[in-house]
Structures are given as structure tokens and as C-alpha cells.
Design brief:
The complex is a heterodimer of chains A (316) and B (520). Chain A has helices at 2-29, 34-39, 45-54, 61-73, 87-122, 127-141, 144-158, 170-174, 177-211, 214-221, 226-255, 258-264, 269-278, 282-310. Chain A has 316 residues and is mainly α. The longest helix of chain A has 36 residues, at 87-122. Chain A is globular and about 85 Å long. The mean pLDDT of chain A is 90. Chain B has 520 residues and is of the alpha+beta class. Helix content of chain B is 33%, strand content 24%. Chain B has 18 helices and 20 strands. The two termini of chain B are 38 Å apart. The chains are: A mainly alpha (316), B alpha+beta (520). Chains A and B meet through α2, α3, α5, α7 and α12 of A and α1, α5, α8, β11 and α9 of B.
């Protein structure tokens, strides 16, 4: 196990270098000059040249990449061309917001998918199972921004129960628990819907598989309580692929928040990357992509470790 | 630059149409709750567009949402009286032009920098303008280009020597280029820290700045007695216009900028809110790349035909839902030399005349690629305009690009034709004409020595009446040559809680001073 972890951890920087190189090349190949965007048409050549020099954009592409990578190794992700702030400062602002939103989305996904997946498996071909199937199909089919608008219409506008905006504001952070939680509810549901569908389907099929195993019949024959049979013997084993998938999906949710952030005015990483792309703010694109990729990689490693932890048959 | 693109960050991902369909105008009318109790409130929550606030220092280029905040932290040397169309004293009490190349500016005494950084003096003006010139900042090309030297003459007088006579000095250099920084604070904090949390001399000072939210607090040492009325302003950048408006209707905000014009008619019918829609200093326009002599539009008769084929009134109604004013020229209301449109081209177009001009030009029809940025309304406008010009045999191949890609093609003149919008910030016809029509300024490659002479002459002329006449000639020539075809001036719109009093809307998109606003 130790060697496996070490091997995976050694791979992380290599993968990140590949990701950063690809991001670097794609950003540089995309039409658009951040200096022109920042300074506009009516600036002088000298001003544009000074700015290019300031951000090393006057150097050759290999030089630019090596200089950037050298700084990254020492923890410096550069400075935003548009915002004039260090990328690490922006990350310190944005990452916690994105983590909170992803956590809220995942909490919603878990709260719904576990009972629904279990109930559908236990009552196959019943109305609960059909409900589960319908729900998961809807979860796969409805785009998160479409669902967000429906939720805003119902819960914010018509019922007036929940706010539309508010995540990351001073008012939210200085208020009580409910003030803190309520702006997250609609965005979390909209963000977590797809994951709910994925996890519900996975848990249902996993539970059905486990319920048909011989050891389940043995457990029932031993006279164990039905609840004990389901929770201790079936659910515990069925959760193995579920937990690993949840870990992967959590990493994935960090990277797919952009539409939700846009609609709900959430100051997270997705909207920062979007703005950076529009303004060709290379240091922000590169820095944020690197961190999002790192999250995804560590989520995958965590999933593998959890898999081994939960299933004693698996040895690395 | 003397213009700001009306899309800066994040707006490009637009589901406005979809959102508007989902949360339609009927809801806006039907669900706006009674505004929050106003009595005793001394805070204001403002929703502005954009994804985040960038730089707030006036010596580094800022975008519109940054400008909305910045101009409440800083006062200018002069301000515009939009009703009188005049430049009025603010931090500069008076100014004189004793000879063509000298401007002497007398500063107001007793103005203090926020947070204990001392008195505002001539040294701050000298420091600021020299910083611009030495750092070759964005304003050198637009507002500060005439300055040769600047020096303090005592504590409250500044003397500027210009390289050339510049008639628009009070409006352009002291107006658009007249936002000063504190020399002491800037030196102590450094340029980067100052741009994040600047020390100003305006009605409000920065309390906090985090991501998409900025909190301003009342400047206790503000020089205008009794102002500001509010103790605190919370600015929140909300990129989606429908979300922004809905947040206002749900009392999560008190004041929003840039609502979708499509939703304005419905919100006007909601008695709990007030809509300010002011004819703005912004254009929608078409521009031709005139460095391509083989293109049929290189013949000015073809460009005139296109201008005649445009039904500008239809653009105003269909794209801006009436929240714009059709125009055919570059000088909007409130500017020197303004004449009420339409000056040459009928607001509903003249298809017969357009076809005659095409025949006269000997052009039967052609295909041309027209680029625009990814702003939702411009894409729709371009589709509408394409349908209009198709009636005279011209096929527009539409290409939407994100702002970065668009700028890359536009600024490097790698386009045939563009349709875009622009917000003008320097309050003088020099700013609306020189950069767009002079051979040394334009992105269109338009090169007409007579136009250059007129533009340079109007820039140097100090007599206002003479300047006005010169700009009339420049406009007439523009209408004849059509290097740019103007469609309309879009309105500057805000929606406010009905209990708010004292707000003075202006045509300038970024200039929303909130020092006089209060709860009624």
C-alpha cells in the first residue's frame, strides 16, 4: 500500500506538468492578446511593450513556460494581468467558496442518492424503483443551469423561501447559521443533481448485486433483523463503488461550477477562470487550471485508497 | 482609451434569453415585494454587472464595474454639468489658458485624502500626471497626450505646459484624465496595493474588498458639507442581468445597473421600483477595414448604401426595446457640437436610395464576413442588420467571437467589417472623432488627409464656437464618407428601490455618483 501511495504521489507532479504545459500551449494558441485587451487600442507601443515585459510576454514561449514553472515550484503562481493581484491571493479568496459549494452539492447528492438508491434496490420494479429511474433520467437530462432557473422560479420568486444570491458576501459570513446556509441551498441542488443521478443509479445496481449474493441469504437465514441485513451486510458492501465514485465526483464538481457560479453570482474558481479566459489573463488561467487538476488527481487517489480501505480483497 | 468596451469580464456567457424566458416579464411585474423599510436606513446595496472588481486605481486601466466604484472613492478636478453641458469646478476651483501652450489650475483648499494621508495639494496632481506619463499609462493616449511638463506653483496651483494647443483640455485632460492619486499613499503602499484598496478624496472610502463584493464606508473628512448621505455602500458584481434584477425585486439589493432592456418595460409597471433610462454616451456601430481596396465596400457609395439600408428605428425597438436612440453620427446629446439626429440617413432607412447607390457604384451584390463579440444583443443586432442589407444584395457572413478573440482581430486590423458597441468616457467630440477617424488613430485604416487636418485643427482650436463649427464639418464628412456607420446611442439604465431619493443619473455609463442618494 505504501509503495502504491508513493508511486501515485510521484505521478502527481508529472501529470500536473503535462496539464500545465497543455494549458499553456492552448492559452497561447488562442487568438487574443492580454496586453491589447488590458490597454486597448489607444495605448502607446511603449506602454504595451512595458506591460509585455512585466509579465514576460516578450520572451519566447519555452522561456515563458520555464519561468512560470520555476515560480510555481517556489509557490508563486504569478500575478493576474487584469486584476493586478497575485494568483495565490485570488485562489485564497476563490478556493474556499468553490469547496463549500462543491461540499454542499455533494451533501445534497448523498442525502438523496443513498435512501433513493437503497429503496429502489429493495423494491425493484415497484413505484419507488420507477420513481428512482425517472428521477435519475431527469438528473442526467436536465442541464444544471436549466434546473437552477426552475429552482429560482419556484423557491425564490414564487414561494420566496430562499435567496437568489448571497454566497461569499459579508452579510452571509457575519450572520448566523441559517444566514450562512440558505444561499447555498438552491445552487447546491442545481450543482448536485447530476451527481445525485449518477450515485443513485450506481448504488441501486450495486445494492441489487449485493442482495443477490449467497452471504445475504445466509444473513437472513441466521435470523438477523431485516434492517441489520440491509445496513450492515448489504449497504456496507454496496457502498464500496459508491464511495469511490463520490470521491471522484467531488473533485469533478470543483471544475464544473462555472454555470452555477454565473447564475447565482458565486465568487468561486469557475467564474474566475471564465473571466480570465475572456480577458486572456494567462497567469490566472494557468494557476487555477493547475489547482483544479490537482484536486481532481487527489480525488482520484483518495478514491483508490478508499476502495482498498473498504474492500479487504483489494491489495495494491 | 477614451472608450470602454461594454463587455469586460464574464458577461459573454449569456443565457439572458433563456433566463428571460424562464423568469419572464410577467414575474417581474407580479413578484416584486414591497421594498424594505426605508426609515432610518443609511446603507445601500448595489448590484453591478461583471464577475469581479478589478483594479480600482485611476492610474491603471479599469473596467466599467471598477469605474462605478472608483468614481465614488475619488473626485475629479472638474465635473460635467450634464444639464448645462458645461465643465464645472470640483477639486479644481478655476483654470486659465494664459497662452496657447500654458494651463494654470487653481486647486480647492482643505480637501483631505482619506485615512489620514494629509491634504490634497498641487504635488499630488504633479505626481499623478507624471506617473501616468512615465508609466505610459492607458490615459496618455486619450487624455494626457498634450502634456509636456507639469509643475506645482505653490501648494494649490498647478502649471501645465502642453506640446500643442488643446481646446478640450478642461473636459478631456482635467475631466477624464483628472482623477488624482495621493502621492504619499501611493509611495507608501506601492502601485499594486494602491490599486486594490486605493486612498481617495471622494465621498466614500474602501472598508473591505473580497472577490465580487466591495464595501465602501462614508468618508468622514469629505469636503462637501452634508455629503455623503449614506454611511455604507455594498457593491456586488452579479454577471447575469436577470439574476441581478431578480435580486433587486426580492430586496436582496436596492439599486442595480445594466438590466436587460427586454425586462425594463415590465419593471416599469412595478410601482415599488423606479427605472432611470438616460440616453447614454455609447454607440452601436459598423466599421469597415479600409485597408482592403479590393473589397466592394471600399467604394464609399456602397458604404452609403449600407447606411441607407439600415432601419435604425427597428434596431432600437427590436434589440433595445426602446431603451436607445437612433443616430447616424458620432456626437451624442450633451456633447459640444451635438445636432439632433438624424442628420442624413432616415431613421427607418431608405431602401430605394440604397439600391440606387449600389447601382451607381456598379456593385451587384457580394459576401463579406462581419465579426462581432459574443454579447447577446450584438449577435441579435447583427442578424437583424444582415437581414436589412440582404435587401440590397449584400450577404453578411456573421462571426461571433469572445471579446479576446474579437479584440485580437479588430486591433490588428485582421477583419473585413465589424459590428460592436463602445462607451465613450471623455466628454468632448475630440474623443468621439479623433481616435476613430484620424489616420493615426483608427482601427479601420481610414486615411483622409482632409479629415486629419480637420481633426487636428479642432483639437488645437481654443475658441469653443469655432470648435463647434469644425466638428459639424467633421460629422458631415463622416456621414458622407461612412468609414463608420452609427446605429444608435444606447441608454444608461438603473433600477432603484422607490424609496431612494436624490440620485442624479448621467449619460456616462461608469459615472454613478452615489454621494447624494438617500432613503426617503
Amino acid at each position: 500500500m505504501g509503495r502504491y501511495i508513493a508511486r501515485r504521489l510521484i505521478q502527481v507532479p508529472l501529470v500536473l506538468v503535462v496539464v500545465s504545459l497543455m494549458t499553456f500551449l492552448i492559452t497561447r494558441a488562442t487568438p487574443g492578446d492580454p496586453v491589447q485587451i488590458m490597454l486597448g487600442m489607444q495605448t502607446s507601443k511603449e506602454a504595451a511593450e512595458a506591460m509585455r515585459k512585466e509579465f514576460n510576454l516578450d520572451r519566447s514561449l519555452p522561456e515563458q513556460y520555464v519561468l512560470w514553472l520555476g515560480k510555481v515550484v517556489s509557490g508563486d503562481l504569478g500575478r493576474s494581468i487584469r486584476l493586478n493581484d497575485p494568483v495565490t491571493t485570488l485562489l485564497a479568496e476563490r478556493l474556499p467558496v468553490s469547496l463549500q459549494l462543491a461540499a454542499a452539492g455533494m451533501a445534497f447528492a448523498l442525502l438523496v442518492s443513498i435512501p433513493l438508491g437503497v429503496a429502489a434496490a429493495l423494491r425493484r420494479n415497484s413505484w419507488i424503483d420507477y420513481l428512482c429511474t425517472g428521477y435519475t433520467v431527469a438528473g442526467f437530462a436536465i442541464p444544471n443551469f436549466g434546473l437552477a432557473l426552475i429552482l429560482i422560479y419556484v423557491f425564490s420568486i414564487r414561494l420566496d423561501w430562499l435567496p437568489i444570491t448571497g454566497i461569499g458576501t459579508a452579510e452571509q459570513l457575519s450572520g448566523g447559521v441559517w444566514t450562512y446556509v440558505k444561499p447555498f441551498i438552491i445552487p447546491a441542488i442545481a450543482l448536485g443533481m447530476l451527481q445525485t443521478a449518477i450515485l443513485t443509479r450506481l448504488l441501486r445496481s450495486s445494492m441489487i448485486d449485493v442482495l443477490s449474493q449467497d452471504y445475504m441469504r445466509t444473513a437472513r437465514a441466521k435470523g438477523l433483523m431485516p434492517a441489520t441485513v440491509v445496513v450492515v451486510h448489504a449497504l456496507k458492501n454496496a457502498m464500496i463503488p459508491f464511495v469511490t465514485m463520490a470521491a471522484i465526483q467531488f473533485g469533478y464538481m470543483i471544475g464544473i461550477q462555472v454555470t452555477i457560479e454565473y447564475i447565482f453570482a458565486v465568487p468561486g474558481m469557475g467564474s474566475a477562470v471564465l473571466n480570465a479566459v475572456v480577458n486572456r489573463d494567462f497567469p490566472v488561467i494557468q494557476g487555477f487550471t493547475l489547482v483544479i487538476a490537482a484536486f481532481f488527481l487527489f480525488a482520484n487517489i483518495l478514491a483508490d485508497l478508499l476502495y482498498a480501505l473498504l474492500d479487504p480483497r483489494i491489495r495494491y | 482609451m477614451s472608450k470602454l468596451s461594454r463587455s469586460s469580464s464574464g458577461q459573454s456567457v449569456t443565457r439572458r434569453g433563456f433566463t428571460a424566458g424562464m423568469i419572464g416579464s410577467g414575474l417581474i411585474l407580479g413578484t416584486g415585494r414591497a421594498p424594505a423599510l426605508a426609515q432610518g436606513r443609511r446603507d445601500l446595496r448595489v448590484g453591478v454587472w461583471g464577475g469581479e472588481f478589478g483594479n480600482l486605481s485611476p492610474v491603471i486601466r479599469f473596467d466599467i464595474q471598477g469605474g462605478l466604484v472608483l468614481y465614488n472613492i475619488f473626485d475629479n478636478l472638474v465635473e460635467i454639468d450634464f444639464a448645462k453641458r458645461s465643465i464645472e469646478p470640483m477639486l479644481a476651483l478655476e483654470w486659465a489658458n494664459p497662452d496657447p501652450l500654458t494651463w494654470r489650475i487653481k486647486l480647492r483648499e482643505g480637501v483631505k485624502w482619506q485615512k489620514g494621508f494629509g491634504e490634497f495639494t498641487a504635488d499630488d496632481v504633479v505626481y499623478t500626471w507624471n506617473f501616468h506619463l512615465e508609466s505610459k499609462s492607458f490615459q496618455v493616449g486619450t487624455a494626457l497626450f498634450p502634456i509636456d511638463t507639469v509643475k506645482a506653483d505653490g501648494k494649490h496651483v498647478v502649471e501645465v505646459k502642453t506640446k500643442q494647443p488643446f481646446g478640450a483640455f478642461p473636459g478631456v485632460t482635467m475631466g477624464y484624465g483628472g482623477t488624482m492619486i495621493s502621492a504619499r499613499a501611493h509611495k507608501e503602499m506601492g502601485n499594486q496595493a494602491y490599486s486594490a484598496t486605493p486612498v481617495g478624496n471622494g465621498a466614500f472610502q474602501i472598508e473591505s474588498k473580497r472577490g465580487a463584493e466591495i464595501v465602501l464606508a462614508k468618508n468622514p473628512d469629505y469636503w462637501k458639507p452634508g455629503l455623503p448621505k449614506m454611511d455604507r455602500i455594498v457593491y456586488r458584481a452579479i454577471p447575469d442581468s436577470t439574476t441581478r434584477l431578480q435580486a433587486l425585486l426580492k430586496n436582496e439589493l436596492d439599486f442595480v445597473t445594466h438590466p436587460d432592456p427586454k425586462e425594463v418595460a415590465a419593471v416599469r409597471r412595478n410601482a415599488n421600483f423606479v427605472v432611470n433610462s438616460t440616453p447614454g454616451w455609447a454607440w452601436d456601430y459598423q466599421q469597415f477595414n479600409l485597408k482592403k481596396p479590393d473589397m466592394p465596400y471600399h467604394n464609399k457609395l456602397v458604404r452609403q448604401a449600407i447606411s441607407y439600408a439600415i432601419d435604425r428605428e427597428a434596431i432600437v425597438k427590436e434589440i433595445y426595446y426602446g431603451e436607445a436612440i437612433a443616430t447616424d453620427n458620432q456626437i451624442p446629446a450633451g456633447y459640444m457640437a451635438f445636432r439632433a439626429p438624424m442628420l442624413r440617413y432616415p431613421k427607418n432607412g431608405d431602401l430605394k436610395k440604397a439600391k440606387e447607390l449600389m447601382a451607381q457604384a456598379g456593385v451587384r451584390g457580394y459576401e463579406v464576413e462581419v465579426i462581432t463579440s459574443d454579447k447577446d444583443w450584438l449577435r441579435k443586432e447583427l442578424e437583424l442588420v444582415a437581414a436589412m442589407v440582404s435587401q440590397i444584395g449584400i450577404t453578411y457572413k456573421i462571426k461571433n467571437m469572445d471579446m479576446g478573440g474579437y479584440n485580437n482581430l479588430w486591433l490588428n486590423q485582421r477583419f473585413d467589417q465589424v459590428l460592436e458597441d463602445i462607451t465613450l468616457v471623455a466628454p468632448d467630440p475630440d474623443a468621439t472623432s479623433w481616435w476613430f477617424l484620424h489616420s493615426r488613430g483608427t482601427a479601420s485604416g481610414y486615411n483622409n488627409p482632409l479629415m486629419d487636418t480637420l481633426l487636428d485643427g479642432a483639437r488645437s482650436e481654443r475658441d469653443a464656437a469655432k470648435r463647434e463649427g469644425m466638428y459639424h464639418k467633421i460629422v458631415d464628412m463622416t456621414l458622407d464618407e461612412c468609414p463608420l456607420i452609427y446605429h444608435c446611442n444606447t441608454n444608461n439604465i438603473q433600477v432603484l428601490n422607490k424609496n431612494l431619493k436624490g440620485y442624479n443619473p448621467t449619460p456616462q455609463e461608469y459615472l454613478e455618483k452615489l454621494d447624494t442618494i438617500e432613503w426617503g
